[in-house]
Amino acid sequence: MAGGGLAANDLDAKITPKVVISCIMAATGGLMFGYDIGVSGGVTSMDDFLKIFFPQEYRTTQEIGLNSNYCKYNNQGLQLFSSSLYQAALVATFFASYTTRKLGRRFTMLIAGIFFIVGVVFTAGAFDMAMLIFGRIALGCGVGFANQAIPLLLSEIAPTRVRGGLNILFQLNITIGILFANLVSYGTSKIKGGWNWRLSLGLAGIPALLITAGSLLVLDTPNSLIERGKLEEGKMVLKKIRGVVNVEHEFEELVEASRVAKEVKQPFRNLLMTENRPQLVITVALQIFQQLAGINAIMFYAPVLFNTLGFGGYSSLYSAVIVGSVNVLSTVLSIYLVDKLGRRFLLLEAGWLIPSESFPLEMRSAGQSVSVCVNMLFTAVIAQTFLSMLCTFKYRIFLFFSGWVLVMTIFTIFFIPETKNVPIEEMTERVWKQHWYWKRATMTFICNEATIDQCNISTIYHAYISTSLSASLSVYW
């Protein structure tokens, strides 16, 4: 593919109403995901919820004494209520990879919306643990499908110069969803008669209906349409979203990328190929760091955590609202800054952004599946173990998370390239092959076809390190 041509064409592209509407509606999937994150901590801090599903845990929470505070929510069943959603999302993402590739990003959004609606009905109407967990599993399937399709749709439909900002609409909606859940939990906690937790879980129906309706309004991406052989429709959509008539250069690049994609029969296996190794390693690392940094653990269990620290019932929920508000404001600021200061500077938001835009078209759906899968795996682990870790480590658990933040910072400085203002189909040539370390890793393919004296010792050494890391990942998967 020609380097730089798309960037020049992108200068003429407009931010059309169709792009804005499609991105806003697509990003509502983040609203549902965020609500699911925030509401679990809220309802698990409600006595009426604990009395029905976790009576032993309810009795434990009534104990008085600082030594018992750290351990009073240490219950595997209670943690399963939170983690079951992410375990289901982990499995669902592989099915979502197929539907995203074969049926399109838009249809995959619709599937997510249906799962969300089913999940809301079962969780809000649950009368026993089986119904409750089944509802959370359905919500998890929705998360798996939404997180697979939406970041791809946002990355592919947005003009290059504002791709970061529009993509972070998904993250913004996640934070708004968390804040909305915290506000709902705070308000419903005052309701008597045992309906407070049902109302909290039932109000998730609002974002569930929004993403379902949104899936009917958004445009499928030109990348997806061309990939599925709908060339004329893809070209027509490309003209609509760019707001210009002359889209020949970008269209030809997309067609060529689609041709290459069709030659790839096993995209997941091809993720381990040398030329895709940098994206794979960074994708996996970012998702692991995102969870080990501890932010989601706080979002899951904020009311419970503040209650453990000695806040009263209402005070703990109010404190969670404050945390959620700061999260939203920080994300709003990042939307403005991400395409100005870059992804590396705002790495918190690039847990999702960099993976969604890094892989070539032929591996993009599979790459996003790996991204979502790793994220959901470690999210489930954190959700299932945090309360137990809190009981064991006590205040030292934050030292554990801080250590991982330090590791992430060092990794970012040395190994995360900047991707702002780089056309998505030119990422390999203009980013990965230019990076000080990853360009050496990609030399493995060249060395394989050359004689030993054509490859210097440094190249072989760095190729060996990269190959070893990729091999360890392949064993893991």
Automatic annotation (TrEMBL):
Keyword Lipoprotein attached: no
Entry keywords, A to Z: Membrane, Sugar transport, Symport, Transmembrane, Transmembrane helix, Transport
Bilayer-crossing regions: 77-95, 107-127, 133-154, 166-187, 199-219, 280-304, 316-338, 370-389, 395-416
Superkingdom to which the source organism belongs: Eukaryota
Membrane-protein topology: Multi-pass membrane protein
CDD domains per UniProt: MFS_STP (cd17361)
Matching SUPFAM superfamilies: MFS general substrate transporter (SSF103473)
Entries under Gene3D superfamilies matching the protein: MFS general substrate transporter like domains
GO molecular function: monosaccharide transmembrane transporter activity; symporter activity
GO annotations of cellular component type: membrane
InterPro entries given in the database record: MFS_dom, MFS_STP/MST-like_plant, MFS_sugar_transport-like, MFS_trans_sf, STP/PLT_plant, Sugar/inositol_transpt, Sugar_transporter_CS
Domain Major facilitator superfamily (MFS) profile positions: 22-477
Subcellular location: Membrane
Entry annotated with the keyword Ion transport: no
Protein family per UniProt: Belongs to the major facilitator superfamily. Phosphate:H(+) symporter (TC 2.A.1.9) family.
NCBIfam families documented for this protein: SP (TIGR00879)
UniProt name for this protein: Sugar transport protein 13
Source species of the chain: Heracleum sosnowskyi
Source taxonomy: Eukaryota, Viridiplantae, Streptophyta, Embryophyta, Tracheophyta
